[in-house]
Structure formats: structure tokens, C-alpha cells
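Researcher: We're teaching a course module on how sequence relates to structure. For the next exercise, students receive a sequence and then see the predicted structure as C-alpha cells, so they can try to spot secondary structure elements on their own. Here is the exercise chain.
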Amino acid sequence: MSDSNHTSFFLTSLPGLEAVHTWLSIPLCAMYVASLAGNSLILRVVRSEPSLHHPMYYFLSMLAVTDLGLSASTLPTMLTIYLLGVREVAVDVCLAQLSFIHTFSVMESSVLLTMALDRFVAISHPLRYGIILTSPRIAMLGLGVLVRSIGLHIPAPIMLRKLPYCRNHLLSHSYCLHPDVMKLACADTHVNSAYGLFVVLSTLGVDLVLIVLSYGIILQTVLAIASKAERLKALNTCVSHVCAVLLFYTPMIGLSMIHRFGRGASPSSHMLLSYLHYLTPPVLNPVVYTVKTKQIRLRMLRMVH
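Model: And here is the predicted structure for the students to work with:
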């Protein structure tokens, strides 16, 4: 079938586990509920507590919104596979999903970079923290994250929709991703591939490098502090963010390494790393920040009681 307007794609579940799909839907539903509850609670706490109206918590709210979007983009199609057994997805729905997934993925990377900037300013220039990170500048950073994430991904689904799909329409993931859909086309996809690589390198790649550089400067600043107690206190403020960075980037790097060097790797390893990359940060980020941030933890306990 060469007309992409009438094409349907078929999503894939974990191979060899078809008999226990109903049981697998239970933890997936639990992850979805946990993500919605945890991130919504973070947003409510930050909004309702005037003492938390500071740059660090504004950036945390941005991360919570991004995690909600990432969960809403990935988990619904997974639940239809494991809970209802529905694998078919219309091309327009598929292109919309991949657009949302990649947009929120870049948005999460961008927010993590702004949070690294927040920690850099707080530790390296503490006396100028309130002067540098003013509310208008934070709003501009948030707007920049939004424009960058959406703007870079507008061309991708438009370019994919113009391609003819005349091969096997079986995707290799439980949700639609740009490289996965692109490889099913029976036309030249060099332009699509080059654009996708450009987007990844100019967003996730650049963000990761800048985050590592910022923490290199932070570490240098902390080591220059004479008091051991002050050094530990400064580093402790970065623990939550470091955990969030590791949760997001570690599976992505592993997935990239498998695609590049693991030619003989099983499809299950690809899918599991993909699940870790897209599903775990929205679930675990609220837990990490609740456990490691005293102000958030105390406000949540007060709200529950």
C-alpha cells in the first residue's frame, strides 16, 4: 500500500510474553497512576505553598509538567496492547504520538539543563542567585524550552506523512517513534534520517554536554570550599537533579550503544531500554524529589495529614 493516508501501523509488545499480557497491564496501569499522582501532587504543593515560590521549585514544576506529558504520550497505547490486545494504530494517530513523545523528550532534556543552570548559579554565585534568576528570566527560559521542543519537531511528522509505506507495517515498539516509522518507508529517507540526527545531536546531545560541563564547574567550586560540612551541604542540593539526569540519560545512552554496536542484541533488550527511557523518569522523579527535598516532603506530609 503506497498511500500513507490509508496506512495503519501495528505496534509490538514484549516478545514471548503474550500469555501474560493481562498481568503486565497491572504494573503499567500502576506506573501511569503513580506518574499522574506524583507529578500532580508536586505541582499542587509548589503552587499552594508561597515559601516554595523560588526558581528551583519553578523548574521542578516544569519537570513535573513534562513528565505528565511524557506519560500521557507513551502509556495509553501500551495499555491498549497489554490490556485490550489492540495493536493497530492509524497513521495520523501514530504520527501525532511520535511528535508528542519526541517533543516531551526534548522538553525534559531542556528542563534538566535549566535545572543544572539553577544549581550552577546557586553554588557558584549564591549572592547573585536572586538577581540572575528573576521571575521574568525564568518565564523566558520556560518559553524557550517550549518553542525549542515544539519547533524542532514540527517538520518530522510532515516529512514522514509524505513517504509511501509499502513494506511490513510492524513497528518494533509499543508506541510510535520517528526512526521506527521511518524504516518502514519504501522511499529514500536520507533527508528524514539526517534531520532526525540533527535534532537529537542539537538537543539531547548538546544538553548532556552542557549538563556535564556545568557539574564540572560546580564540583570545582565545591572543592574550593574550606568547610567539609558546607561542601556536603552544597553537594546535597544537587543529588535530586543528578538522579533525574541519570534516570533520563542512562537508558538513552544504552539504547544508542545497542543500536550502534549491538547488532546481535535481542529485540527484548531494545524494548526494555526504551521502556526504561520513557516510562521510569515520570514515575521516579517525583519520588526522588520528595525523598531528597525536605521542603517538598514536609509540605506533602502536611497536605496528606
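Model: If you want an answer key for the exercise: The chain has a mean pLDDT of 87. The two ends are 59 Å apart (CA to CA).
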